[in-house]
Amino acid sequence: MLKKTMLTWLGVLFVWCLWSSTAEAETGSVQVSVVKFPVKVNGQVMNNKQLDYPFVVYKDVTYIPLNWDLMQELELNIDWNADEGLKIYRSCCTSPYWMYPALEKTKYVQSGKAANLLTRTYTAKVATAPIQLWGAQIVNDKEEYPFLEFRDVTYMPLTWTFAHTRLRMDLQFSLEEGLSIWSGQDQVLQQIVYDDAEALYVDALGKDYKTYAMMKIDKKLQTKPEWVAKEQVQIIRDKAAQEAQAGAYEGKKVAIERVDNSLTYEGFQLGELRKEEQGILGDTKLQIEGTLYEIDSKRKLLAVYTYFPIAVIGPPPGSRYQLFAIIDGQLHPATNYPYKPQYVVKNTDGSVWIARDRMPFRDFYFRGSGLLAIMDINGNIRLANEVWNEQDISPIGFSSPTRNPVEPDGRLIVRLYGKSYTNELGIDPSTGLNPLTSELTDSQKDGLYEVLPTLELRKLSKAPDDGLSFYRDSEGDIYTIQLYSNTLTNWTQNRSKTWSDIELLQ
Q1: What does pTM read for this prediction?
Q2: What residues contact residue 8 under an 8 Å CB cut-off, 6+ apart?
Q3: Residues 345-355: pLDDT tens digits?
Q4: What pLDDT, on a 0 to 100 scale, did the predictor assign at position 257?
């Protein structure tokens, strides 16, 4: 589901509920209505007409009751004490599932004998007790969509920030299906690794939660995924690795010489080392790595990486990337490309794509590390980030084994994020204290685009949730697997399908 449009479908699309407010939150009491559209929790339709704690709507946003049974099904943790109030959080990250393995989890049974009317409104109150959402204190009287109290149970607004970003829930809405909430699902579907004409082959969490298996999924998304026989899994993985290697875009390793405090390559003077690079750090000496991309007899690219080999999370302290173009035997520093390219691809017209995806750092990315540039036949380099005013650009399909990511005319697909370009590097990897990204400046630019070597852009679709891995199949279609549910989406064909963890594991 599109990050950009979550508040829209939770808001604008809900106006067909025909609810109108008769009181403002500031008065303490507000009017809510029971939802009229279908609501599903992990695939199970909620009987809101009879539930003691039904889903309700306030100010055109759906609210979820935080009662014990439902929280157990969603695998959300709820703590309460008189001093600190209500705490809502999620246990995670210590196992391949959330709180309970799917095959051992108690089935959620709806209870309630209420007679909730869909044609009337009910009175609720704005919550006044302290509320923490995974460590963040909620200033409830300042929230546009505050937490509410209804029938002595706290209700949370299903906004994108609260539900998805903070509590890692997957929210989906359509006029046909209504609202679907997925939470606490075992992430059975992991990563697409290969495809043929009919199916995708996906690394999957095995039923024992210890080993990875593989599932075959029909590209039409009309049938249930099938487990691939064990003897075939390695054959498919080997085939994917071989085809990926055949289409690799990496350069070759070359030796960079250090003469006193200067770096040279085959007689080219690459410049002086910085002061902090000239000595030792701890008991380590500076390491120097060179990668050469030979484009043709006239043009070459040289990437130089200097670092101290100290074990840290993220790039080593003091590490530095430099890129140089060697054109007709002349050296030209590319100072606006301070990272090693991942892909250097020559097009049929002689132009060359120089691309790399964002560099991860813990759960984030280094600001400005997703770079795209085009070199013309004379060796001139234009940085697309500067041309489009984009902080980061992610190329799509370069890691997919079954299709060349660049079309014969040089077209490729990229992801833009709508954040302004800056030539400042990201954070200090030794501290992690500085912001990793700039603020979102143009939400309309956040999307998938087709780009020509002229750097002309054509928008293909809105962007999926951030952090997803893209796979481009042999037909050119782009797929993702959702982070918090077993949802497979074909962005090119605008098709999507979600399976419950139980459905896949049984």
Answers
A1: 0.85
A2: none
A3: 999 999 999 99
A4: 97
